[in-house]
Each structure stands twice: as C-alpha cells, then as structure tokens.
Design goal:
Blueprint: H1 2-21, E1 44-49, E2 56-59, E3 73-78, H2 81-86, E4 90-95, E5 98-104, H3 105-108, E6 116-117, E7 120-121, H4 142-154, E8 158-166, E9 171-177, E10 184-188, E11 194-199
Antiparallel strand pairs: 1-2, 2-3, 3-5, 4-5, 6-7, 8-9, 9-10, 10-11
Length: about 210
C-alpha cells in the first residue's frame, strides 16, 4: 500500500508539472495594413515619391485633387497610413483608401534638383544668371584696368586710350604710354579679366 501511495503521488506531481509547463497559444500577428491602389482619377505620375520605387506618388491636377492643390505645397498620394505619415507632411484627405498628403514645397523639392509644378517637374523659367559683365569704359572698367596693368608692366605712366577693338572672343584696348613710339595693347575679357599685355611697335624702339 505504501508503494502504491508513493506512485500515485508521483503521478499527481507529474500531471501538475505538465499543466504548469503548458504555454498559452501565442497571440496571432496583427494583419498587415492593406495597401490601396492609387487610381488614375488622382492623376498620379512618377516612379515613386520621394524616391523611385517608393509606394507614394505625386499627384497632378484632376477633378478629385483640385480641392487639395496648393501653390506652396506638393500633393502626394500614399497607399497606407504608415507611408503617408513617413512623408512628414499633412494628411488632407482620403480618396478610395489613398491618403492625400500635402508636403510643403521646400521639403518636396529637397534633393530633387528640379522645380516642381502641380502636374510634375517644370522647366526652369530662366537660365542661371549670367556672370556680371564689366563695362568697357568708365570707372573700374576694362579700359581703366588695362591702363593700370600696362603702367605696372612698363613702369611708365599711361597717357590715354589710343583705340578699342571689340570682338566676340576678347576686347583689344590700345593705350599710349609716355616715351613709347607705338601703343601698348591689352586683351581684355568681359568678366573683368585682363589677359595678355604687349607692345605693338618694334621691340627695338622700347
């Protein structure tokens, strides 16, 4: 009898241990957020926003987007809440499950290297500003710069300008120098650079 009691007790302990070790079933993973399809009615364009391959797309002007367009912001459509929030803009609407996000223009153009319009990239209105051109005559002009350089090169005062010859490549400025039988010439450029300085007469007369 004593042996049977011991066996029965051991069996009971084993059952209790098994009951305690039984783990509860793991909670089911939350279903992935369903991605909406961006319809043509939103006028999507591009290969993804902000980078090619991304799920969001820039939206152009259409009947469905006209109320959300803003000259100071870019309108972007995202297929999920997470992708919309990742843009950092303001979610302004939801059309067929697509989140409409207004992204400030400064942020929308960052890193793109191009100006953007309501319907996509637009050509720059003007070319890059041309470098300022230095006047040929007058204060701080090519003429005065030439005179200064000739005087420095020759070591004699410049008496005045003999003549100026213009061409597309450069401007030839001829100046009279005290003691010289012929004028000295500068090759000047419209950006203010004074290039070659040379004597136009016989070198033996210098």
């Amino acid at each position: 009898m004593k042996f049977k009691a011991i066996v029965a007790g051991a069996s009971a302990l084993a059952l209790v241990a098994c009951g305690e070790s039984t783990s509860e079933p793991e909670a089911e993973a939350a279903p992935a957020e369903e991605l909406a399809v961006i319809p043509e009615s939103l006028a999507p364009f591009g290969d993804g926003y902000p980078n090619a391959g991304d799920p969001c797309q820039r939206l152009g002007e259409s009947a469905a987007t006209s109320n959300y367009l803003d000259d100071s912001a870019m309108l972007v459509g995202c297929p999920s809440e997470a992708s919309a929030e990742a843009l950092g803009g303001t979610i302004v609407g939801n059309v067929e499950g697509v989140r409409l996000v207004s992204v400030p223009m400064g942020d929308a153009n960052a890193g793109t290297g191009e100006a953007m319009g309501e319907n996509g990239p637009v050509a720059a209105a003007t070319q890059a500003a041309a470098p300022a051109q230095v006047p040929i005559r007058g204060a701080n002009s090519l003429e005065s710069r030439c005179a200064d350089k000739v005087a420095s090169t020759v070591g004699a005062p410049v008496l005045g300008t003999n003549r100026i010859e213009e061409s597309e490549a450069a401007i030839g400025i001829y100046v009279n120098v005290q003691g010289a039988e012929a004028p000295w010439r500068c090759l000047a450029y419209r950006d203010g650079t004074i290039g070659e300085v040379m004597y136009t007469g016989s070198e033996g007369a210098l």
